[in-house]
Design goal:
binds alpha-D-galactopyranose; single chain; 13 helices; about 350 residues; alpha/beta
Length: about 350
């Protein structure tokens, strides 16, 4: 009965709303690049799944493949939630990105300790290898690309790698070599990415280039750079964006926008805006229009654009960085209807 009511709801209310919004993202961008969304099993079991299926042809797990969820305790792997998303993607012929194999956050402390003592280099490398090989092998042939390492570059202008990261502290740049090589060994066909935010800002961009160059010079298999693209209206500029894509591509790697959303706020203390504010809606639409113009112009250098969420009803930016403040960073509003930004992205 519950299932029947749910289907009636989808068919009579949700589908008509979506069909008014033709064309769809995935159709319009078929000849350009896959269009993805970050999801969880909860999202896929909710009414959001209608939008997921109609608009997107690629998925990524928002959290379910991160070390903290996959291997909370040493040697105890938990794949239930990740498997759910993988099965959904397979059933619906969608591509799937893997996110993320190593990161300084959402990674359990046990990796870095042996009893009460700090872990030795050799043990840490072995744990890293085992983690990467186990996760990548499980999804071999199902996950087409992996964010092997996330956010390794420092935010401080005068620091290269993030010295507060336990990976960097223990192993320096070598942890990247170990992780990329282990991922490649487990699935030689998967494309392997270095992923970071603010990757269009010149200082960070140049450090990412230095890192990827250095890895490639050592023969480490790096195929792509993931630009997270947690942006805000107006930033980055068209020039910054174009330059970063061109410079990354010149390294011989492909570029993906891996976590796209555009905050409607310029600062942490800016007051709550109304969802229906026409000014903000228009500014967001103009900004998205510019971004997708650049993506289309540079399609040969870009192999995917993934949104960090489906619709404004659920976004991590609701509470970050300002607690309790609602944000509207995506192409669909809280009722899952297309916003003006959606129209700008598909009408070209
Ligand atoms: C980073 C991570 C993502 C996610 C977002 C916030 O960008 O790469 O996995 O945690 O932050 O939701």
């Amino acid at each position: 009965m519950k299932k029947l009511l749910l289907s009636v709801f989808f068919v009579s209310i949700v589908f008509p709303l979506i069909s008014q919004a033709q064309p769809t993202l995935k159709d319009k961008y078929k000849k350009y690049f896959p269009i993805g969304a970050a999801v969880s099993p909860r999202v896929l079991k909710s009414a959001d799944s209608v939008l997921v299926l109609s608009q997107f042809n690629s998925l990524v797990c928002e959290n379910q493949m991160k070390p903290a969820l996959v291997q909370a305790k040493e040697g105890v792997f938990t794949f239930k939630d990740a498997d759910f998303v993988v099965a959904f993607a397979q059933r619906n012929n969608m591509k799937l990105r893997g996110h993320t194999l190593c990161w300084h956050a959402q990674t359990p402390d046990w990796f870095f300790k042996e009893g009460e003592n700090p872990v030795s280099k050799e043990v840490l490398k072995e744990r890293l290898r085992k983690h990467v090989e186990t996760v990548v092998s499980r999804y071999k042939g199902k996950v087409y690309c992996w964010d092997v390492a996330n956010e390794v570059i420092s935010d401080k202008d005068d620091e290269y790698l993030r010295s507060s990261s336990p990976w960097v502290k223990n192993l320096g740049e070598e942890f990247l070599e170990v992780a990329f090589r282990a991922a490649h060994k487990a699935d030689p066909k998967a494309l392997l990415f270095y992923n970071d935010y603010d990757s269009e800002k010149p200082v960070k961009r140049d450090k990412i280039i230095r890192l990827v160059k250095s890895l490639k010079d050592k023969g480490v298999p790096v195929d792509g750079i993931g630009m997270q693209a947690h942006w805000k209206i107006g930033s980055p500029t068209r020039e910054e964006l174009e330059k970063a894509i061109d410079m990354y591509s010149a390294l011989g790697v492909t570029v993906q926008f891996t976590e796209l959303d555009v905050s409607v706020y310029q600062s942490d203390d800016q007051k709550q805006v109304s969802e229906l504010s026409p000014e903000v809606d228009k500014q967001l639409a103009d900004y998205y229009k510019m971004c997708f113009e650049v993506f289309r112009e540079k399609k040969k250098k870009i192999s995917g654009v993934t949104f960090w969420g489906v619709a404004d009803n659920v976004t991590w930016l609701d509470n970050y960085p300002t607690r309790g403040r609602k944000n509207y960073p995506l192409l669909f509003n809280t009722k899952r209807e297309p916003k003006q930004a959606f129209n700008e992205v598909v009408n070209f």
